[in-house]
Write a structure and sequence with these properties.
The complex is a heterodimer. Chain A is built from no helices and 11 strands. Chain A is mostly beta strands. In chain A, the strands form 2 sheets. In chain A, strands 2, 4, 5, 9, 10 and 11 form a 6-stranded mixed sheet that branches. In chain B, the strands form 2 sheets. In chain B, strands 2, 4, 5, 6, 9, 10 and 11 form a 7-stranded mixed sheet that branches. Chain B has a 4-stranded antiparallel sheet with strand order 1-3-8-7, with no helix packed on it. In chain B, about 0% of the residues lie in helices and about 55% in strands. Chain B is mainly β. Classes of the chains: A mainly beta, B mainly beta. At the A-B interface, β5 and β9 of A face β5 and β10 of B.
Chain lengths: ~110, ~110
């Protein structure tokens, strides 16, 4: 059973701090990973994807992928109250055509 | 560009009734996914289509659920008969060549 694991949280950080969200996956064949943000009552919204080992930066967001450790993370710099949401990590299996989603980490940014 | 469109946004029905959820994917996307989300189980894949053909329906809970994609711009998810445990938010998502899935706004289904 291919799985993506996330700490459900809640993760609470003060405004302006760095929020670190982590994800592990079981399928060594997984090649590409996605981070989605979901506000309460809304649909998941794609914020980043990463295919290669290392870091990928987009504004205040940095995704990190370590295939040897089967580990994906998302860093949010200068966290804002508007970043408070549930963050879903997802990865494609080797031959699967569908994304495997983690259960999500709830982030709360306190003013 | 228009995103994924779903209708209705909210549906309240009584147990035993037929429910039909509709989805229009992003134009040019050739894969479509139906998900169900609940607090207890999170986001679950029900079925997905590539080029209008069902590829994996192993997530469909039981025979009461069926899905069709008659053409590249329309898909339906039908529940007949509906039960209270089917109450959830149902999302449709489509995927293009960038491998990312883009979600519609969802349909919140309540079965009384």
């Amino acid at each position: 059973q291919k799985e993506v694991e996330q700490n459900s949280g809640p993760l609470s950080v003060p405004e302006g701090a760095i929020a670190s969200l982590n994800c592990t996956y079981s399928d060594r064949g997984s090649q590409s990973f996605f981070w989605y943000r979901q506000y309460s009552g809304k649909s998941p919204e794609l914020i980043m994807f990463i295919y290669s080992n290392g870091d990928k930066e987009d504004g205040r967001f940095t995704a990190q992928l370590n295939k040897a450790s089967q580990y994906v993370s998302l860093l949010i710099r200068d966290s804002q109250p508007s970043d408070s949401a549930t963050y879903l990590c997802a990865g494609y299996g080797g031959s699967q055509g569908n994304l495997i989603f983690g259960k999500g980490t709830k982030l709360s940014v306190k003013p | 560009d228009a995103g994924v469109i779903q209708s209705p946004r909210h549906e309240v029905t009584e147990m035993g009734q037929e429910v039909t959820l509709r989805c229009k994917p992003i134009s040019g996307h050739n894969s479509l996914f139906w998900y169900r989300q609940t607090m207890m189980r999170g986001l679950e894949l029900l079925i997905y289509f590539n080029n209008n053909v069902p590829i994996d329906d192993s997530g469909m809970p039981e025979d009461r659920f069926s899905a069709k994609m008659p053409n590249a711009s329309f898909s339906t998810l039908k529940i007949q008969p509906s039960e209270p445990r089917d109450s959830a938010v149902y999302f449709c998502a489509s995927r293009g060549t960038d491998l990312a899935q883009y979600f519609g706004p969802g349909t919140r289904l309540t079965v009384l």
